[in-house]
């Protein structure tokens, strides 16, 4: 049996979760702005990427490595199943330099076959996203802090 990855469906499901998670944390106008930018982000520049998620029930560590050897390291307060997951996918952004230089925080949602990450600056402005498919024992949703740096 072949698994088919419907990226658009994953984005819509994740966006619903994001909007519910952000109610009361962000103004509705900001949630609407982020939602629009997220849905249109696949029309911009994109980069191949690998995402590794490690979850310890109430804490998660994230690593996203772009094909050009730039790495995002982040940590999140999250509620999820313990374990590890690896996803291959795409990072979308309308401004690569801004994504790399100004990412301050992120929101993620992952399940056993798909994962999504939204990257934000310190003003909660949307900078880009990761959408991917893989295999994982982790089911989690959460937000945290992180930054991009060249891979050593």
Taking the alpha carbons of the first and last residues, their distance comes to 39 Å
The CATH class is identified as: Mainly Beta
Total of DSSP H or I helical runs spanning 4+ residues? 3
Number of strands: 8
Helix fraction bin = 10-25%
Name of the CATH superfamily: Rhodococcus equi virulence-associated protein
Strand content: over 45%
Q: Mean of the pLDDT scores?
A: 90
How would you write the strand order of the largest sheet?
1-2-3-8-5-6-7-4
CATH architecture: Beta Barrel
CATH topological fold name: Lipocalin
Rg calculated over all Cα atoms:
14 Å
* Biggest sheet record: 8 strands, antiparallel, barrel
**Element-by-element helix/strand order:** HHEEEEHEEEE
Which shape, going by the Cα principal axes?
A: globular
Based on secondary structure, the structural category is alpha+beta
User: Uncertain spans, ≥5 residues at pLDDT below 50?
Assistant: none
Count of structural domains: 1
Please characterize this protein's 3D structure.
InterPro entries: R_equi_Vir, R_equi_Vir_sf. This is Virulence associated protein VapA. The chain has helices spanning 7-22, 28-40, 96-102, and strands at 45-55, 59-66, 70-80, 83-93, 105-110, 114-120, 126-136, 140-150. The protein has one domain (7-145): Rhodococcus equi virulence-associated protein (Lipocalin, Beta Barrel), CATH 2.40.128.480. With 152 residues, it is of the alpha+beta class. The mean pLDDT is 90. An eight-stranded antiparallel beta barrel has the order 1-2-3-8-5-6-7-4. β1 (45-55) and β2 form a beta hairpin. The chain is built from three helices and eight strands; from the N terminus they run ααββββαββββ. The chain is globular, with a radius of gyration of 14 Å.
């Amino acid at each position: 049996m072949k698994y088919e990855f419907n990226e658009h469906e994953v984005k819509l499901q994740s966006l619903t979760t994001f909007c519910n998670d952000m109610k009361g944390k962000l103004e509705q106008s900001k949630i609407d702005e982020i939602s629009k930018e997220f849905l249109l982000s696949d029309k911009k520049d994109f980069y191949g990427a690998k995402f590794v998620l490690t979850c310890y029930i109430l804490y998660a560590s994230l690593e996203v490595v772009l094909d050009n050897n730039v790495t995002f390291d982040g940590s999140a307060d999250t509620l999820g199943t313990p374990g590890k997951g690896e996803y291959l996918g795409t990072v979308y952004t309308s401004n690569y330099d801004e994504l790399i230089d100004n990412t301050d925080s992120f929101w993620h949602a992952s399940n056993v076959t798909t994962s999504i990450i939204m990257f934000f600056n310190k003003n909660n402005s949307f900078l880009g996203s990761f959408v991917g498919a893989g295999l994982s024992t982790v089911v989690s949703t959460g937000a945290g802090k992180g930054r991009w740096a060249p891979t050593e």
